[in-house]
Amino acid sequence: MSVMSGIRGNPRLGYRTHDAVVIVPGIMGSVLEESDAPGTRIWGDTTVARSWFSGSALRRLQLTPEEQEGHYGRVKATKLLDFATWLPLFRGVERYGNLGHAILGAVADERAVREFPYDWRLPVAHNAGLLAEDARAHLERWRASEAHDRAMRLHPTEQEPAKLVLVAHSMGGLLVRHLLLDPDMAALVRACVTLGTPFYGTPKAAALLNSGRLTSSLGIPLLPARRPASAAFGRDADDGLRALAVTLPGIYDLLPTYRCLVEGDTARRLTAEDVVRLGGCPAQAKAWEERQLPLSDRPLLSDDHQLLVGSAQPTVQSLRVEDGVVEQLFTTPRAKGPAVNEWGDGTVPICSAKVPKVRPAGQPIQSHSDLGSADEVVSWVAEVVREGDLSTNKPYLGGDDEKPFGLDTPDGAVVPDEEWTAVVVGEDVPAHSAFCDVEAVGARTAWKQRFWLQSRDGELRAPITLDRPGLHRVTFQPPGGGAPISQLVLAIDPRLDD
User: What secondary structure letter does DSSP report for 252?
Assistant: First the structure.
């Protein structure tokens, strides 16, 4: 079943393009299965809470020695994620049903839309090659169809065969960047849309390699400290997370390539040696550095690039390393003057999501995961697809009079029956009437509860205690009718055992 079967809202009426569309998800956004055991998921399983605690999911996701040598095929990406899921530090990933449905309302026929799931563990360049093949084949099939010919005849001005529109979230935009380096492929593309793509990486990828040695941004360990008795005799889940991360080329391809490593009053770019010092694999670190060289002096994208950057969310923007341990910093270093807080979407800093000579179409006040699903974003994407008047859709992305608010939640797991806090940042939030709603995600029984904000230590905090394990969505509704902001939080019961 396609993610586009999950409908939320109604497609906007109007002209429908005759072009073909490919949706490219972000990291963690594709279901992964064992190739020799169809239906056996190693990523995208509903038992995410239990598997993250036990570490079993981590071991199955690790690249085998053969895969690390470039012999792929053990794992197959089967479809886009069909429900929300979660990864420490990177937090959650929402499903793409809302985006897919909005795009369906902008094309002439549902056969014009193609989803491209991929094995996000592997190198971006490898997956970009597969994307190029898949997108070209999709365009050829669509051009050969009667539905395409009929749609082309109805186009108000265009009598040329369809081209491609590439819509990418997060890591998916890196695949698109590689694809567009091929002039033949670039000639087939009418437009590309990137949503929260870390073109220059994210410091959280570096922190993930160091994950057994740090805590989350709110001071909570990435996974609960208490373990069942059996865990005392094996690798704990935090170390298992780092053991997974160091094998994945896809994680290395998310490492920051801008000046993010703070040393005293200056900052510099990461080197392969730094990555090893953080806990990375020497061979993988060297390969990552070599993969970056061909891109260092190449233009990122074509002139037909529509770019959205999430903003106003507390975001790790740089790092400091002391005795091999990463300290996450919420400021962006400057060549001259002190570092400044430029914010971001909670995962990708603004400085990484922008590219030279491409003016962002907007900076929606959204979290990284919501950039692929928020109503105001997907409505704008649909206008790009249908070749609409984008100037009339600026309100969907928030106007100048909209005050920015941010929502910060733990990027590590929380424990049922133990209090933690959601932090709201921004000006003029009326604490007496502001709140966060928390709802269970993917649970058999619906559960939702409201937690009121309180002023603590100069910040607005919502003390939250969950009485059950599982994935939860925390949502803050800004006063004055702004778009809601949400983050996913995972609660793990330490009493669980394999």
Answer: H
Angle between helices 124-143 and 172-179 (to 10 degrees): 70
Residues forming a β-bridge with 42: none
CA-based nearest residue to 348, from 201, 177, 173: 201
Q: Domain boundaries in the chain?
A: 1-403, 405-491
94 in Cβ contact with 195 (< 8 Å): no
Which residues, 6+ apart, have CB-to-CB distance to 77 below 8 Å? Answer: 30, 31, 32, 33, 117, 118, 119, 120
Outline where DSSP puts E strands in 125-237: 164-169, 189-195
Express each pLDDT in 156-175 by its tens digit: 776 789 999 999 999 999 99
Protein fold of 1-403: Rossmann fold (3.40.50)
Return the DSSP state at 497: -
Secondary structure E strands in 164-255? 164-169, 189-195
* Unique residue bearing structure tokens 């865990």: 231
Q: What is the DSSP annotation of 408-467?
A: E--SS-B-TTS-EEEEEEESS--GGG-EEEEEESS-SS--EEEEE-EEETTEEEEEE--S
Domain 405-491 CATH assignment equals 2.60.40.10: yes
pLDDT at 164: 97
Contacts of 240 (CB under 8 A, 6+ apart): 55, 58, 59
Task: Determine how β-strand 164-169 pairs with β-strand 189-195.
Answer: parallel
Q: What is the pairing mode between strands 20-24 and 113-115?
A: parallel
Contacts for 113 with CB less than 8 Å, ≥ 6 apart: 4, 20, 21, 22, 23, 100, 103, 104, 107
CA atoms within 13 A on the CB side of 315: 33
Write the single-letter amino acid at 385. Answer: V
Residue 47 has pLDDT above 70, yes or no: no
- Residues facing 423 on adjacent strands: 408, 461
Top-confidence range, 87-96, 151-160, 200-209? 200-209
pTM higher than 0.85:
yes
User: How would you classify the pairing of strands 405-408 and 325-329?
Assistant: unpaired
For range 361-384, the mean pLDDT: 92
DSSP 126: H
Check: CB of residue 44 under 8 Å from CB of residue 81.
yes
Sheet containing strand 470-476, strands side by side: 448-452, 435-440, 470-476, 485-491
The residue type found at 478 is P
